[in-house]
Amino acid sequence: MGVPAGSTLTFRWTPPTTNTDGSALTDLRQYRVYEKVGNGPWIARIGIIGTVSKATYKPQTTGIHRYRITAINIEKKESLPSNEVEINLERPVAVPSYSPVDGHD
Known about the structure:
105 residues, mainly beta, Immunoglobulin-like, 5-stranded mixed β-sheet, two-stranded antiparallel sheet, 42% strand
């Protein structure tokens, strides 16, 4: 079972502390959250300035959505992407309701 389309997704991550060469990361500028729907291309959906390690996003389409995050330093050098997270966004299911009429079941 997936998540209903139109739900707000919350992404949280642990901020990086080192550059890819192992040196201390002292110049982190922002993060980017990328989305890939089905077999489509990766698209930058959210840009977060600063060192906040949380983002929300509300996709509207159904299907398999994949997300990954990158860090960007002040020189605009982007890190390798994080591991991917996959979410199946499904069309909400209408649940029939039942209410007795005049006390009869």
